[in-house]
Fold these 2 entries.
Entry 1:
Amino acid sequence: MVRLNEIRAGETAAALPAAPDAGVFFIGRIHTPWTDRLACPRQGRLDGPTCRIEVFAPWAPAGLEGMGQYEHLEVLYWLHLSRRDLLRQSPANDGSARGTFSLRSPVRPNPIGTSLVRLLGIEGTSLMVRGLDCLDGTPLIDLKPDRCAFTPVAPRQPGDDEVAT
Ligand code: SAM
């Protein structure tokens, strides 16, 4: 059940720290058909509507060089309308709750959304893609080629079986 900003039965919230530990640069803006969270898909589909990822200067055009060779990209975006303080959430709004990090809910301390998208084409400093699930105007924070495009995995190293403490 899609939420706006309410706290539901069974949910708990934290007092947020006074200041963030780091900042992000919004490198662009995502244009989608959805202006209402209730109408937005929960997850994107590779056969979903064509969306436009606008990349701002100075990150484009130079930062987009080489992107055209990829069929699939990971898109990271800032779910800017989300509350950030919930520890336990009740996605079904049925009184039962689960920890925030066991969910892909947009409500999280750092409201980062990720989608694997199909790259349809590049038009100037915009990427045309399918597979998104965010509101029109959502800030863009990063673009990466799909990790499957990179092979091989590095060979095993001495110490790979040690446990970090
Ligand atoms: N695919 C991403 C992920 O798994 O990290 C996001 C999944 S999240 C469940 C998608 C939902 O976030 C949408 O259905 C919508 O309700 C909400 N949403 C989309 N854009 C948003 C925004 N800019 N701010 C807050 N919520 C947003």
Entry 2:
Amino acid sequence: MRGKIIDDCFRPAQALMRHADAIELLRSRIAPIAPSETVRLKAALGRILARPVAAAHPVPAHTNSAVDGYAFAYRDYDRDSGAAFEVSARAAAGHGLSVPPPPGTAVRIFTGAAMPPDLDTVAMQEDCTATGGAASRVRIPGGLKPGANVRGAGEDVAAGAELFAAGHVVRPQDLAALASIGLAEVDCFARLRLAIVSTGDELIRAGEADLASGQVYDANAPMLGGLAALAGCEAHDLGIWPDDADEVRARLAAAAETFDVILTSGGASRGEEDHMGAALAALGSRHFWQLAIKPGRPMMFGQIGRSIVAGLPGNPVAVFVCFLMYVWPLLRRLSGAPWPEPRRIPMRAAFELPGRKVGRREFWRGMLVETADGPAVDKFARDGSGLITGLRMADGLIDIPEEVDAVKRGDTVPFLPFTEFGILGR
Ligand code: AMP
Ligand code: MG
């Protein structure tokens, strides 16, 4: 079910909005909109679980040997002096014994084999001495504890245990956990259908033509396509829209019929050639945000029917930062995950910044570096929000709170690794 999701979410234009207030506003008003569907395990990587998942059976299902060696009953064993046994049978993984071995005997056993009935302890083969003609006897040294080298049924997961809550994002190791409890498919939230729009008469697409004077290759659409895909959305590129009021409005109206979310870049300020805001206001609800952040001060949010529109700035660095800070958690939440506040890692500053204008939250591009004093984060030296080089060099963002007026070398600064946003690296 989905109604007006961001109804009355955005207050009228106000003075600069603080980052934390913007996050709180989004966090408190955005609710999941995606329906659920059944997904084969093979296709579930990165998907968001629509229901909690509990184990119907214990894992492992059967008590089994953790090593290659000899299984025996501890009651037949002497911890001080060890014991010698006749080897009466063989148990390999997938080929366990169905009947108990004769009392007082040991069983040759291999890793993963179910423990033979009545036996409870395994000695590693490296510690044992096989004796007798056809290795039919074995000498086991002292010192083993009862139950040594045995993996108990349910020691990984007890029957009935909840493995995942609804909203969990499935990682490769989670696929192992899901398969280990016997699931071949899981209920996941459907991927959001997301449209990506670039705006600006100066833009052309790489590969389409050589740059004419004043033209710029569209860098935002490929970047947003990647970010949206890594955020688990089904991204659709709607191309470059011209700086033309009627055209923008018609295309926006059409896109709102089809997509859950429309992500635009550029044309989001209040300039004469910024038509996105007017189109959004005419077709639905629109709210300008003037954020007290750098980079990326103007942003727009709105809704047309059931479609949510996020209007990002035009400069690529501002687009990237605003996507990570506001759009990424919004997409995750709309997709059914809990609101994800990225985790800040305290890092030592390898740079200094003596005088800083307070009152504004800044997100600097940061590189992880090794220094004589250990790991630290360095700041990309230049500031411009059009410098894609800083994004390319960076491992994450250095999050500088509003009130900080200086950073000294060696100070601790909060660092947001790009991996927090599911951005691959290394
Ligand atoms: P705007 O907000 O439309 O005034 O754009 C601000 C700046 O970002 C301008 O210099 C634009 O040329 C640039 N810009 C806007 N969209 C893109 C894009 N898709 N790729 C690269 N640069 C862009
Ligand atoms: Mg523009």
